[in-house]
Amino acid sequence: MELKPSSPWPELFGRAQRSAIHVEVRDSYAVPAESEPFRRFLAGEPREAEPDSYWQAWADVVKDATGRGITVSRIRVVSEPLSDYHRWLLTETGDNIDIGEDIRYLPRHFASADEVPTDDAWVFDGNTVAFNLVDSHGSPAGAAVTADPGVVAYYRHAIDRMWSMATPYADYNSGQR
Questions:
Q1: Radius of gyration (Cα) for the chain, nearest Å?
Q2: Contact predicate 37/93, CB 8 Å
Q3: Cα 67 versus chain centre, distance
Q4: Which one of 51, 75, 97, 175 has the lowest number of neighbouring Cβ atoms within 10 Å?
């Protein structure tokens, strides 16, 4: 396993040739750049009109990948009722869809515990797994990357199973109102 500190995502997406799919299994995250938009949501305040630099950097990575023909997808495994974080994220996810991501939601109770990985990870081209690392405060701390055949097979199987049960964002979001 190779440790990639800081923000390895532009490099990993830059090497992708076919696909990048993210498995998200936590009910909340502590991404520093999301703190203010999340606070605004909880306070009932409107979204900022302009995207911040963190979002723009991510959008550039995704647009570059999708522009090269890479599919960028996510499966969000969520507890219901949704956590405040996931309620907020539903209001933001349309932006991800607009830049080319395909995001699906899987209520946690629809899958058995052995079908859902315990760790968030990106799977690139079906042959590389990059685990999202977090520090002691839950903030992003890079990635641990592996091409171990057993780990890759486990995530590929989990993704195939969860994808077939997951609901596209637009359908899931319309059911949450």
A1: 16
A2: no
A3: 19
A4: 175
In this structure, are strands 121-124 and 167-168 parallel, antiparallel, or unpaired?
Answer: unpaired
Whether residue 100 contacts residue 72, with contact meaning beta carbons closer than 8 Å, is answered with yes
For 76-110, the pLDDT digits (tens) are 999 999 999 999 999 999 999 999 999 999 999 99
pLDDT at residue 53, rounded to an integer: 85
As given in the structure block, the two tokens for residue 92 are 């933001």
Say if residue 81 is preceded by a cis peptide, omega within 30 of 0.
yes
**Secondary structure (DSSP) of 42-91:** HTTPPPPSS--HHHHHHHHHHHHHHHTT-EEEEEEEE-SSPPHHHHHHHH
Residues β-bridged to residue 33: none
